[in-house]
Structure formats: structure tokens, C-alpha cells
Write a structure and sequence with these properties.
By secondary structure, this protein is mainly alpha-helical. The protein is built from 5 helices and 3 strands; from the N terminus they run βββααααα.
């Protein structure tokens, strides 16, 4: 998702309407969007600080969480998935020392930013502000579409589990399913 001003931007998706060569939903296409009204946009300072850190990419190791299953939910949290992935750093570095850059400057950095955003979110919500987060899960095209959709749902589920347990459940009362 990329904004080119406060009301419009572009995003990439394999949704219905995307152009494809062989298999429907195989490939992402670029779409544009424009907000019709900005009257519902909260412009207070704390909220705008959160926006400085978004969108945020979070990463999972290959088929995680819960590999080789067709479940759409998981009991694991994103923190557990992140930790197990980060613990693989020495194995990856044996094959390619440059992977340190990804583990330190992307994986670790983004996990820390996530926690900072969640702290700001708790602060904003306790002040009475309403917030809406959009969460999307993705999977590489190495498996079939149905499996990847379920994997993406498990990834979203693990993120939701993390939100629910964050800071002893401080966000739980604010989460609408």
C-alpha cells in the first residue's frame, strides 16, 4: 500500500479483476484508490505518530505457523513465530553471511517497531480514540492458492493472538472481530 498524497495511492493485489496469464489469482496487479471523504480521519498527534510507522511488514519463516496443516487458525502468537524465525539466524548465516542484514535490519527492527506501534495504540485507545487496523497475511506462490490462503489466515490468527496477549491483554477490550 503506497500513498502519493493524503487521500489517494496505489496497492498491489491478486483480487478479482487482476490481469493474469495462466492461473487466475496467480499474480498481483496494481490498483489505485482515492478516499471519498476525509471527514472521519483523526488527525491528533499520537495517531499521526502511529502512521509514521505504518505500513509495517512482518515476516514468518516458510510455512509458519503450524506447517503442513490446512487449519485457518493457530494458538501460536506472532511473537512465538518471530522468535523461532530469529533463532534460525546462525543457520542462515552459515550459508550466507549477508543474511545478517535481513535478520537485524528488517526482522528484528520491524518486531521492535511493532511493539512501539502497539504501545502507542494502547495509549491512544485509553484516551478514548477509535482506531482501525487493517491486517493482511500473505504467502509465497510455492503452494496452491487454497493452501496459501489458509496459511495467510493462520498468520493473521497468530498476529491477532499477539494483539490479545500484548501487555497482559491491554488491547483485548478494544478488539472487534
Amino acid at each position: 500500500l503506497t500513498f502519493y498524497d493524503e487521500k489517494s495511492g496505489y496497492f498491489s493485489s491478486n483480487r478479482v479483476g487482476s490481469k493474469f496469464q495462466n492461473t487466475e489469482y496467480c499474480c498481483n496487479d496494481i490498483f489505485s484508490f482515492e478516499y471519498l471523504s476525509s471527514s472521519n480521519i483523526d488527525t491528533n498527534k499520537a495517531t499521526s505518530e502511529i502512521h509514521d510507522y505504518l505500513p509495517l511488514d512482518l515476516y514468518f519463516h516458510n510455512d509458519e505457523p503450524d506447517p503442513n496443516t490446512t487449519k485457518t487458525t493457530t494458538k501460536k502468537t506472532y511473537k512465538e513465530a518471530y522468535t523461532s524465525y530469529f533463532m534460525m539466524k546462525p543457520d542462515y548465516e552459515k550459508n550466507n553471511p549477508n543474511t545478517n542484514i535481513f535478520f537485524e535490519e528488517t526482522l528484528l527492527k520491524n518486531f521492535n517497531i511493532l511493539n512501539k506501534v502497539l504501545e502507542m495504540l494502547v495509549f491512544d485507545l485509553k484516551k478514548g480514540n477509535n482506531m482501525e487496523l487493517q491486517i493482511r497475511g500473505y504467502a509465497s506462490p510455492l503452494h496452491n492458492h487454497v493452501y496459501n490462503q489458509k496459511l495467510s489466515q493462520r498468520r493473521i490468527s497468530s498476529f491477532m493472538n499477539y494483539l490479545i496477549q500484548f501487555k497482559n491483554g491491554s488491547l483485548k477490550e478494544y478488539i472487534l472481530s
